Amino acid sequence: MTHTHRSLVYRDALLTDLSTIVAIYNSTVASRIVTADTVEVSIESKLPWFKSHNKRTRPLWMVENGDRQPIGWVSFQSFYGRPAYNGTAEISIYLDENQRGKGYGKEILRYALQQAPIHAIDTIMAFIFAHNLSSINLFQQEGFEEWGNFPDIALLDGVRRSLVVLGRKV
Fold first, then answer.
1. CB 59 within 8 A of CB 50
2. Do β-strands 88-95 and 123-129 pair in parallel, antiparallel, or remain unpaired?
3. Which of 12, 26, 82, 131 has the greatest number of C-beta atoms within 10 Å?
4. How far apart are CA 131 and CA 32, in angstroms?
5. What is the largest CA-CA distance in the chain?
6. For 162, phi and psi rounded to 5 degrees?
7. What's the rounded Cα separation, in Å, for the pair 126 and 98?
8. Residue 23 in contact with residue 42, Cβ under 8 Å?
């Protein structure tokens, strides 16, 4: 699938994209704001995650600008792994460090919300560190509400961090 929506192009990620996906992901590790990984991950370690996606119900899309240069990726992952939760997915949006703060996150989230029903997703959840205020604000602006708060469950460089679960029906 390749789809252009507004200024961005969305296409199904290929195995050849995995190095770009991992590089974008790894660019967030040092900030201690986006991911609970404390060291960069390898391409090999993300291969099972990559293979867990499928075009029909759990897509992983590369996001490209009008010049077809990758600016980020977005994925839907299964929640909890039980059949009764098949309509629920966790969303992840990651942007290249040079593309952050340009409004792409909002555009990508809106696209994902529009596409969710096509992929049999009726509930979307986002797991975000409580100190990641920009991501929380982005999701709340698009109608997500706080569905859970796990206080001080992560330890990043000696600092306890809380995890907020945001959710929305689509």
1. no
2. parallel
3. 26
4. 9
5. 43
6. -100, 155
7. 23
8. no
- What is the sign of the dihedral through the CA atoms of 140, 150, 155 and 26? negative
Sign, Cα dihedral of 165, 89, 141, 11:
positive
Both structure tokens of 58: 């759990």
pLDDT > 80? residue 5: no
What is the DSSP track for the chain?
Answer: -EEEETTEEEEE--GGGHHHHHHHHHTTGGGTSS-S-SSPPPHHHHHHHHHT-BTTTB-EEEEE-TTS-EEEEEEEEESTT-GGGTTEEEEEEEE-TTTTTSSHHHHHHHHHHHHGGGGT--EEEEEEETT-HHHHHHHHHTT-EEEEEEEEEEEETTEEEEEEEEEEE-
The predicted structure's pLDDT at residue 131: 97
- Give all strands of the β-sheet with 70-78 in edge-to-edge order: 2-5, 8-12, 60-64, 70-78, 88-95, 123-129, 159-169, 145-156
Report residue 7's pLDDT band, with 50, 70 and 90 as the boundaries: confident
Task: Tell me the two tokens of residue 123.
Answer: 């509930």
Instruction: Say how far residue 49 (Cα) sits from the centre of its chain.
Output: 13
pLDDT band at 153 (very low <50, low <70, confident <90, very high): very high
